[in-house]
Write the structure tokens for this entry.
Amino acid sequence: MAESSAPSISAPEVAIHLTDDGGVCKLVVREGTGDIPPLHSRCIVHYVGRLAGSGSIFMDTKEAGSSGQPVTVVAGRDSSTTERGLHLAVSTMCVGERAHLWTASSYGYGARGNFSFPTIPPDTDLIYDIELLDFEPPTEGKSHSDMTFEERLESAERRRLEGNELYKSEQYEEALGRYSVALSFVDEDLMIQVQGFHYDKAIATRVPALLNSSACHLKLGDYNAAISSASQVLTEQPGNAKALFRRGTARNALGQTDAALQDLAAAKKAAPGDPAIARELHAVLKSMKEQRQAGANLFRGLLDKEDAKELYSDQEEEENEERNVSTREKDGHSGGGDGAPQGFFASFMQVLCPFIFGRPKYHEQ
């Protein structure tokens, strides 16, 4: 197979960085026409691929040994273990465009390389000369059982992104429908079948869809559903700050202040600089303080002066709860166990019962 000079692995300054880490760079050699392919389109391309270090060609789709036919690359496919840089690049091209592409090994064949065709040594950067001939938008119609893992994940991701756009335009019911369809492609049955790389890719789509579903439920006032969606995230990621925040917010709306306080204290520990979490936590603590004050006022006329003094002294201790939250966070407690705050009713009745039913009599020893 003939070899020709390859571009330097160091992409020129005029090259476009397609990733934040600079691992994929593209330089347009010839402009194309029309629109870029929709996400997960089947793109028909010809390309020459080279090893960056030696310039050796590992693939030339126009060569007889490669059948001479163009190949199909899925635009934006991120669930593949190989050549993610190539999939990303075609998602930015127009039909007829030709470009040079530089990809770090992590966007090519990774640390393992590839020992079948094409042969790629481990940890090898790659260079492509690629041309987009045409593309076909993604199509549906298959049952879930007939889809490959990649097809299911891509279908889920498209629905999730559609839901995000609907959410931005405040169409919460419609967005929730998109998220629900997305989750049907990455359901619990799929999750128990995958592991490692594939599990990580699936969870990266499933968790945002669940979090966004919880946000929609909050906007629609369906607080129990918001709790359910957030709890599913916390099953996989117990320290997820967004899930803790949204579940705590929903619990507070339902009057479950003790449980809300535990969630929000844990959320603040996970994301200490988040102002929304701080505001909601303050609102819960303020609500608990007002509940205690209202309860104390209700029974104020039933108590004599000395008993009232003891009751309100206990109330002042309860009002220190906000300061105690920070202390529990430093000690590693986010709620529950001996460090969990008591419910208002339980703590109030502990104080009030001796005044209603009488104090126990103690005998001197």
The two ends are 104 Å apart (CA to CA). The longest strand covers residues 126-136.
